[in-house]
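May I ask for a sample protein chain and its fold as tokens?
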Amino acid sequence: MIRQIAELSGTTQSGYAFVLPMSSGEPESAIERAKNDFYSVGVKKVTGFNFRSDSNLGASNDNIASELYLKMIDSLRNAKLIYIPGGVQSNFMSAIKNTAVAEAIHYAYQNGALISGTSAGAAVMSRLMITGNQLNPRPGNGYVTIAQNNMELEEGLGLLQDVIIDQHFIMRQRLNRLVSVAIEYPETLCIGIDESTAIIVDGDIATVAGESQVIVIKNQNGKKAILNGLLGAKNMELSVYLPGECFKLK
């Protein structure tokens, strides 16, 4: 997937990639791993910056820190490829929400940059984002119910509107949680991306790439039923797309 990201972005020919590691619990290591991955497929220039670090935020009286922050924001705005590694998506959004970082990502996107991410980095792309937390968890592991008001959603980057993305989908058996979200948010197209798999978005068309499948769920009639906290819906649409296949986002 890294090779395809690099080729699609054009960074094997010109420009540079910028790594945003704020989802990761080990951000500096995440930057170095991403650099090595991109260098290995021919990207000539890769930089990265942890905007979550208090010492880097430029909010202190340290003029050097402030200058570095502004320099990194400018670099982010002009990147040809922005890459968001995995980790915890809520950590990423809490670091950038209502900041110049978020504005810079949107500026780059609107000016033709490729914005890519793995795991948590994929989840943050949508306007509404699955955090992975359950508000009313049951005993045991995993997502064992299709229940009302259980899945926690937060604000994401909003690069994709009316779409919600889930990740590691088939491997980690996350169908219950995405069905729950699809029932409660019928205006959204719910997309479950499996491991070693991606969607490449061009306008309103998504193309599946990688080694596994993508599941797309839609509560197309917009209706739901609730009984003792359990969710129900009729005639929901569920499609399983293979690598190379395309589907519409709207």
About this structure: The helical segments are 2-9, 27-40, 63-77, 89-96, 100-110, 120-123, 175-184. The chain has a mean pLDDT of 94. The first helix runs from residue 2 to 9.
